[in-house]
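## retry 2 of 3
previous attempt timed out at serialization; input unchanged, resubmitting
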Amino acid sequence: MLESFLITSRETLEASLVVGIVLAYLNRTNNQNYKKTVYYGIVFGILTSLIAAFLFTFFSGGFEGRAEQIFEGITMLFGAFLLTTMILWMMRQRHIAKEIEGKVGKHLMAQPLFSHLGIFMLIFIAVIREGVETVIFLNAINYASGINFIGGTLGIIAAIIVGYLFFVSTKKINLKKLFSISSILLILFAAGLVAHGFHEFEEAGLVSGIVAPLFDINNILNEKGIFGSFLKGLFGYNGNPSLLEVLAYASYLAVIFVLYKRIESSRVKISV
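## retry succeeded, writing output
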């Protein structure tokens, strides 16, 4: 449940922040006549995301046996890749509001038709990007541990509330801390997807597990139990992993740590 909540809340929050920034900027600059364009962008973005979800489910349902294992493995690895790019992008963003407001300002300076089209595309792309990523992430979760509809729905609701409170109310919500905590959880979740992806490739016979299993602690903490299932869904826990899965998990975390250090060092150089 928590993994579904985490994915939908993070993705929805990013889209809602973009929408909130644009609406706040339009209000501040007395350009309320563009609000309908923003709403159209939201609606068409959601509809396109639903179409993408249908197509993904339709085509993925046609795989069986070894082809299904390979497809699931690719989906998990691709989902981990998208999560990683999203996390690294958020680490680099320190002035997201100014960046988006700058884009809106440029669109407003154009001819009315192009101004509406520019703002529409800004919102549409923001919504569909998060929507398509959510589709891929939730399918990856489904392959790894199963989707929780309640958790996903609560995540969407929570993100919309946070976005609304941040831009319409007191603006006292510490988004930096919120993104930092969720980024740590998402990094561990992505590492689990990488390990699960290689596990699927092992079962399909594409790669060797090297040593399989490396150890087996299911008698202590069973991955099919209540707590074990929770750890499996959120952190990619496996009670009897192969050496390849452990190496994949550890290597992913090591790469993320190096990239994080580089981003932090570049921030220090810029501030100096």
